[in-house]
Amino acid sequence: MPVEKELTKLIPKMYKWNCENMGLFFFCKGQLQLFPTLKIEQAVMNYFRFIDISIDDWDVDSAVATYGKMQNEFYKCR
User: Fold this and answer.
1) How far is residue 20's CA from residue 48's CA, in Å, rounded to a whole number?
2) What are the start-end ranges of the H helices in 1-78?
3) Is residue 8 part of a domain?
4) CA-to-CA distance for 76 and 71, rounded, in angstroms?
5) What residues contact 58, with CB distance under 8 A and at least 6 apart?
C-alpha cells in the first residue's frame, strides 16, 4: 500500500483548489496584509481589475464566499 506524503497530510484541500481560486485567495491575502482596513469586497474587485475580468464573469458575492471558504480551509490545515 502506498505511503501518503507528509505534505499532502498537512494540506490536502489545497491540492483540490483550482488556479483561479488560489489566485483570488493569495491576491486578497496579500492586499489585506498591506492594507488592513481594506474590505474583502474591495480586494476582490481589485483582483478582478488585475486579471481583467468583469462582474458578469464572476460574481463578487460568489468570490467573497469562495475566499471565506478557502480561508477556513487554509487555517484548519495549519
Assistant:
1) 11
2) 6-10, 19-34, 40-51, 60-77
3) no
4) 8
5) 20, 48
pLDDT in tens, 23-62: 999 999 999 999 999 999 999 999 999 999 888 888 899 9
62 assigned to some structural domain: yes
17 part of a folded domain: no
3-state secondary structure of 11: coil
7 within a domain of the structure (yes/no): no
Q: How many domains does the chain have?
A: 1
Which residues make Cβ contacts (< 8 Å) with residue 51, sequence separation at least 6? 23
For residue 35, give the C-alpha cell.
492594507
